[in-house]
Amino acid sequence: MTGRMLDNPAPTWSSYIPGKTLHEYQLHMKQQHPAMFELLDARRMAELENQTWLAEDNEFGDEDGRGRGISYRLAQRRSTARLTGITTLFDLLGGPHWTRPVCDVLGGDGLLSKVWRRLTGAPDDAEVPLLAGDISGSMVAAALADGLPAVRQRADQLLLRDDVLDAVLIAYGSHHIAPSQRPRALSEAYRVLVPGGRVALHDFASDSPVARWFGEVVHHQALAGHDYDHFTDDQMAGHLSDAGFADVRVETMYDPITIHGDTPERALAGLADYMIDMYGLELLREGAPDVETARADVLRLLREIFRYDPETFPDSAVDPVTELTVVADGFGYRAELPRLALVASGTKR
């Protein structure tokens, strides 16, 4: 069943995303992104009417005063901050020059779609092959407002038809998927892929500096907290294999955050601001007497937590750093925060 309009355009809940009912969302997709609209399954979308999660608060929402959606989107304006890792993920999935659609399951406000444009040199009005999915209506609304195809859906309840995608990416937030929902999320990825299609599941290992950052800093300094279980490599491989994927492998990838500035001081200040906005560290910001103190507090924590043994870096890492480092480059100066991530990949049989 293709993405035809629903017979009943008036669901009992008021909005699918902020400012749009489900029917209005469908009209927008049909008019602005017709190829992506055809991927949507009308039956699965009709079933949304009885699902309560659409009205529930979300960490990335804007409505309840505790969500970090606004500050997160502010951080995403620095679209090259995670360019190294995103490029690696695209390469793993056969991109960025895809000829068939790809779903970025945890797509937020469409950051990876914007990076795709940068990597391919596509103009701003070019149709993007990435469909950004997200559970947050505010994030999906922001992506649509930027002219990007997006859909509000759960990772374990994709609204796509069977066998329609070349690749599925579950990255930059996969630990937000509840452990009980993770097997279903990988089964859903398998369902929507064409035979031979690829999946990539990305997370920061449960014993990594990134997990420590979330547990020791973000959970205590963000208004909504951040208490989530990260993956292990065995769990990743197991979920992919159980879903039916072949050629399953788990690798370590270098996935730094890099912020540029015309002086070392501005690069470091930009990194601190990015981390505060990205992770919604409102309590830290409010507890500091001024902006400079808040930045200094964040940089101190980053230097303390993000330290790596050089022996743990993959061979594919190009000039990695083992701790927060500022280096001169062709753009002025670059503040680079090292991160190692796990990525599991597999192919639909």
Description:
- The chain is of the alpha/beta class and 349 residues long.
- Helices cover 36% and strands 17% of the residues.
- The protein is built from 13 helices and 10 strands.
- The strands form 2 sheets. The chain has a 7-stranded mixed β-sheet with strand order 3-2-1-4-5-10-6, sandwiched between helices. Strands 7-9-8 form a 3-stranded antiparallel β-sheet, covered by helices on one side.
- Helix 4 (69-75) runs antiparallel to helix 11 (264-278) and helix 11 (264-278) crosses helix 13.
- The longest helix is centred in the last third of the chain and has 15 residues, at 264-278.
- Mean pLDDT is 93; it is low at 6-12.
Mean pLDDT metric: 93
Number of helices: 13
The largest β sheet comes out as: 7 strands, mixed
Shape category: globular
Strand order within the widest sheet?
A: 3-2-1-4-5-10-6
Number of strands: 10
Percent of residues in helices comes to 25-40%
Tell me the span between the first and last alpha carbons.
23 Å
Key descriptive features of the protein:
single chain; 349 residues; alpha/beta; seven-stranded mixed sheet; three-stranded antiparallel sheet; 10 strands; 36% helix
List the helices and strands and how they pair.
Elements: H1 22-32, H2 34-37, H3 42-46, H4 69-75, H5 83-92, E1 102-104, H6 111-120, E2 130-134, H7 137-145, E3 150-152, E4 165-170, H8 182-192, E5 193-203, H9 209-221, H10 233-243, E6 246-254, E7 257-261, H11 264-278, H12 282-287, H13 291-305, E8 325-329, E9 332-337, E10 340-347
Helix pairs in contact: 4-11, 8-10, 11-13
